[in-house]
């Protein structure tokens, strides 16, 4: 029976891994899948060794308290795959965890693929020398990434982002509102403060203060959010009630794409959500803050002047980014209201998003499946 090992470390990685497994099973119905993942991978039939929440930490200082646990999980995962070798191991994102695991598995003769390139184009390009010893192939989401790997003789292929092929170029805000039973005549702001507990705790105060700033400018505004877990649901509801119970907030679960599509503007933490908002053609404001130590280290290493994926893909900062000290209501709020009050600017933004969407759109599931089966059967 053909068998793959897989590790996905966060919500976005679990979604990509789930699509990957579903696509592979169309070609290999009896495929066995085992590894680390979330609810999506579990539903797709993956035998879960550890839930992905065990790996969901971000930032340098945030990892320190969990380092012993993370090392133990990686060691035990390595031992499992060495004792039960898969035909191929696929690390989905989570580079700090996966690359060292991949290196050990490759050394033992197990074929290794890494799916989702780390941001080597933004910082730490020197990692490519290390990556060359870890993997047999890199599968990238964006067409500008493979040339970086070619310089180091690392086989790499652009496979596209699954969402770019799933989401149509033209989207329908009113249809999304009807699906969520939202008013069609209101101005609605979606806010997505992240998926990790540490991220939500850090970002939510600034987000709620910013929404309150907007609400003071227009008390008819409505607000919606998507929550990925019971913990997030309880925590966000409690914080809204404590900070500003006057806000009209509607809560949804595991409907992030509908939530963004139904909105007039999205306030979000930098990450995959920014790409999703771009594909859905929604104006957005990206706001983010990290731990002080993480920021001090990162700002000395990051080479690009912007961090959100739409700006990186476009090669210019046309999406507002309010980072670290600028991540405050007095700066975020005006950017949100600018989108709500300037329809000409919104239309211009939508045209840019449509062009970027077309540039990264390929038949992702087919290309991805071909690449993985090619490595398995080599």
Structure description:
With 378 residues, this protein is an alpha/beta fold. 49% of the residues lie in helices and 16% in strands. The protein has helices spanning 11-27, 39-43, 60-63, 67-83, 95-107, 127-131, 146-150, 162-166, 173-179, 197-217, 230-243, 256-261, 272-279, 292-299, 309-314, 329-341, 343-359, 364-376, and strands spanning 3-8, 32-37, 47-51, 88-92, 112-115, 137-140, 156-158, 188-192, 222-227, 249-253, 265-268, 284-288, 321-323. It has a 7-stranded parallel sheet with strand order 3-2-1-4-5-6-7, sandwiched between helices. A 6-stranded parallel sheet has the order 10-9-8-11-12-13, sandwiched between helices. Helix 4 (67-83) runs parallel beside helix 5 and helix 10 (197-217) packs parallel to helix 11 (230-243). The longest helix has 21 residues, at 197-217.
Write a compact overview of the structure shown.
Helices cover 49% and strands 16% of the residues. By secondary structure, it is of the alpha/beta class. The protein has two domains: 3-160 and 362-376, Rossmann fold, CATH 3.40.50; 173-359, Glycogen Phosphorylase B (Rossmann fold), CATH 3.40.50.
């Amino acid at each position: 029976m053909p068998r793959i090992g897989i590790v996905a470390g966060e919500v976005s990685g679990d979604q990509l891994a789930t699509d990957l497994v579903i696509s592979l099973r169309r070609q290999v119905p009896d495929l066995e899948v085992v590894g680390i993942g979330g609810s999506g991978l579990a539903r797709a039939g993956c035998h879960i060794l550890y839930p992905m929440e065990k790996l969901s930490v971000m930032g340098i200082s945030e990892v320190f308290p969990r380092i012993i646990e993370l090392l133990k999980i990686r060691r035990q995962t390595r031992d499992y795959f060495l004792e039960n070798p898969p035909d191929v191991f696929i690390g989905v994102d989570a580079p700090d965890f996966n690359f060292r695991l991949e290196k050990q598995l490759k050394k033992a003769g197990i074929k290794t693929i890494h799916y989702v390139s780390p941001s080597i184009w933004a910082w730490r390009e020197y990692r490519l020398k290390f990556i060359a010893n870890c993997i047999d192939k890199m599968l990238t989401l964006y067409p500008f990434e493979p040339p970086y790997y070619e310089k180091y003789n690392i086989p790499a292929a652009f496979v596209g982002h699954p969402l770019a092929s799933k989401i149509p170029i033209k989207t329908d805000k009113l249809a999304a509102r009807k699906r969520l039973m939202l008013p069609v005549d209101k101005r609605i702001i979606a806010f997505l403060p992240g998926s990790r507990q540490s991220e939500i705790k850090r970002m939510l105060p600034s987000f709620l203060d910013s929404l309150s700033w907007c609400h003071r400018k227009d008390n008819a505004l409505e607000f919606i959010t998507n929550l990925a877990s019971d913990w997030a649901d309880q925590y966000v509801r409690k914080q809204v009630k404590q900070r500003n119970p006057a806000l009209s907030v509607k809560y949804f679960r595991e409907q992030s794409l509908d939530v963004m599509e139904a909105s007039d503007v999205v306030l979000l933490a930098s990450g995959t959500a920014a790409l999703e908002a771009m594909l859905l053609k929604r104006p957005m404001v990206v706001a983010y803050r990290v731990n002080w130590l993480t920021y001090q280290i990162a700002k000395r290493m990051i080479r690009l002047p912007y961090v959100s994926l739409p700006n990186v893909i476009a090669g210019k900062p046309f999406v507002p980014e309010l980072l670290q000290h600028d991540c405050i209501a007095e700066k975020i709020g005006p950017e949100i209201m600018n989108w709500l009050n300037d329809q000409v600017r919104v239309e211009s933004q939508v045209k840019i998003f449509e062009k970027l969407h077309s540039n990264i759109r390929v038949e992702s599931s087919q290309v991805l499946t071909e690449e993985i089966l090619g490595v398995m059967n080599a």
